[in-house]
Amino acid sequence: DLPFFQQHSKLLFEFCLVKGRQRYACIERLRQQQKHPELFAAVSDDVVDWQKLSDNWQQRFWLGDRDTLPAPLTDSMWQRIVADPLHCHKHDKRHLHCPFHLARAEIEHTDVLVVNHALLLADLASGNSVLPSPDETLYIIDEAHHLPDIARDYFAAQAQLTHNSVWLEKAGKLVQQLIAVLPATVMKELLRFDDSCNELNSLLKPIERCVTEFTPRWFSEKTEYRFSDAALPKLFQQQAEQLSQVSQKALLQLDKIQQQLQENSSEQQLSVRQSLPMLQELSYLRQKIEQQQTLWQLYAVEQQKSVHQARWVALQTPGQHIIGHACPLGVAGKLEQLLFSDAFAVILCSATLTALNSFQYIRYDLGLTQFEGVKTLQVTSPFAYAEKGQIIIPKMNTEPTEKAYTDELAALLPQYLPDNEGSLVLFASYWQMQQVAEMLRKKGFSLLVQGEASRQALLQLHAENCKHGKRSILFGTQSFSEGLDLPGKLLTNLVITKLPFAVPTSPLEEALAEAISRKGGNAFVQLTIPATAKKLVQACGRLLRQEQDEGRIIILDRRLVTKSYGPAMLNALPPFRRNIEY
Q1: Which residues contact 37 (CB under 8 A, 6 or more apart)?
Q2: 7-16, 291-300, 364-373 — which is least confidently predicted?
Q3: Band of pLDDT at residue 43, cut at 50, 70 and 90
Q4: CA 152: distance to chain centroid?
Q5: DSSP reduced 3-state for 423
Q6: CA 203, CA 195: separation in Å to the nearest integer?
Q7: Of 216, 373, 279, 240, whose CA–CA distance to 89 is shortest?
């Protein structure tokens, strides 16, 4: 959109796409792949022409990032050349012209930076290592209805609670290797790091015994167990603070060791053959220790009466590892501290920022209720809804909560699947979609059902059918109700089988509902209804994608008429003509 806007606004500005480090290759590492293939070879290797890739970079046929690769690389192959901070740092002159550092230099003279939500949060949390400082920045955050969930994910933590001695014992062996090659000046740091790893091991072993003891009770029915009110086992509470501190100490020691190893490598006191495997081992250890540090730091936070974390454990197969998890319930404080309190200005926009025609839910989630001067604007759509489409709510005998609903749905659907049109039928559950598909196929209907082929393949078949004037029916679940673009004849008939209510099943959702109930609130009213209203608006948004589009929406859920929350949900939908058969 930016080139179009630039052209028609006549404004002069430079813009660029800012990507995370993991999207860029390190050209020096690519050269090492060519020079020392024996250091990287594995039995399961794909065949990669590293020389050709290097030539493409030299000739600028390839821009040095994963998105412009001439041929895709598997994750394992990409990790061999990725510009991670351990190997690719600009203080080493060999890396000055690596794509990542060239891209970061470009930011200095660019007016408009395009970033994703995750990179924005990572940069804010790291103290603006890449992006300009908030007080010099105007933020325009699109799809902002996702921001609370993305922030929760970013500030969450997870680490393994079992099998930690395996990698911690490797740390001891690595220390011995480093002692043999690094100067005596770093000897004390190496020994301190070794002590920290031993201390971590001695603290984590009782945790593993505790976890093993509780495993039969925690995982008798499910592979996840949530700690009600975030109350951890006593041993976890007793050792959390110490585990957090020891992990933090180990990370600081690791920093100094890595720095020394990098210096020796860049000054060619150590060969690549010597330094590279050790740098990779240190990188692996850093990742493991960071995970422990962030988890135990969250576990060490004392829970107040107003519970502010979800805490749970999960059984990971294969390997039978037990993973500890922690996630903040609210992110308002973090977003205020990192973004809202310092930013020059923030504009949040999305087609679904409101729920039930109100901004109050998103304002609460983002912590904006306490800020003065927050302005909201609900912009009217350019679509002539009343002329271009209608919402039909047929009379039904059953409610979606009844067993007979699936049979009635299968009996009623055929009359709402017209010939020679593109239809999309949205289901709230995968199981029900498959049941109805089986019943309709017995009646001779040809269906394109989610999961039976890739999404891209289904959409290609659908487009081909519509192009030749055939009836084409897509069956999909919730993922087809957001981000699916079917303009013109590709969709003129949208069927929503039932309201997309989500039962709180994830530990985070359960904890959010529990926290509301603890405060005397109603989780169904405060969480479920607004979330469902948003999803319904998103689903209805599939119909009109261009101003000339037209069609109809059939909603086969009588709760919009019979339940107290129904009118509010209906009023939140676009102003199509209404045909309610009650």
Answers
A1: 50
A2: 364-373
A3: very low
A4: 10
A5: strand
A6: 12
A7: 279
Q: Which tokens in the block code for residue 98?
A: 């690596």
CA 315 from chain center: how many Å? 21
| Ordered domains of the chain (ranges, CATH) | 2-114 (no CATH), 157-316 (no CATH), 385-580 (3.40.50.300)
The confidence score (pLDDT) of residue 410 equals 97
519 Cβ neighbours under 8 A, 6+ residues apart: 306
> Which is it for strands 345-348 and 321-328: parallel, antiparallel or unpaired?
unpaired
Quick one: which of 49, 107, 115 has its CA closest to 81?
49
Beta bridge partners of 355: 358
Question: Quick one: how far is CA 524 from the chain centroid?
Answer: 25
pLDDT reading at 429 higher than 60: yes
Report whether 310 contacts 292 (CB < 8 A).
no
Query: What's the token pair of residue 236?
Result: 């976890």
- CA angle (372 as vertex; 125, 111 as ends), nearest 5: 50
Q: Which residues fall within 8 angstroms of residue 54, CB to CB, at 6 or more apart? A: 27, 30, 31, 34
Q: Which long-range contacts (CB under 8 A, 24 or more apart) does 409-415 make?
A: 409/436, 409/497, 409/556, 410/435, 410/436, 410/439, 410/440, 412/556, 413/440, 413/495, 413/556, 414/440, 414/443, 414/445
Contacts of 364 (CB under 8 A, 6+ apart): 332
Helices 272-299, 187-218: axis angle to 10 degrees equals 50
pLDDT digits over 240-257, tens only?
Answer: 999 999 999 999 999 999
Q: Strand pairing of 157-160 and 321-328?
A: antiparallel
For the chain, state the CA radius of gyration.
Answer: 28
Q: Are strands 448-449 and 389-393 parallel, antiparallel or unpaired?
A: unpaired
End-to-end CA distance of the chain: 44
Which structure tokens are listed for 31?
């050269």
Cis peptide before 318 (omega within 30 of 0): yes
520 sits in the region (left: phi over 0; alpha: psi -120 to 50; else beta) called left
Cα 101 to its chain centre, rounded Å, is: 26
Task: Of 94, 272, 88, give the one whose Cα is nearest residue 181.
Answer: 272
**For the chain, counts of helices (H) and of strands (E):** 23, 15
pLDDT digits (tens, 9 = 90+) for 545-555: 999 999 999 99
Q: Would you report the helix, strand and coil content of the chain in percent, each value rounded to 5? A: 50, 15, 35
CA-to-CA dists, residue 476 to 412, 505, 546, angstroms: 18, 21, 22
Q: Going by DSSP bridges, is the β-strand pair 389-393/345-348 parallel, antiparallel, or unpaired?
A: unpaired
Cβ neighbours of residue 165 closer than 8 Å, sequence gap 6 or more: 201, 204, 205, 208
Cα distances (angstroms) measured from residue 478 to each of 142, 243, 497, 501, 527? 21, 41, 11, 10, 18
Alpha-carbon torsion (203, 209, 214, 215), positive or negative = positive
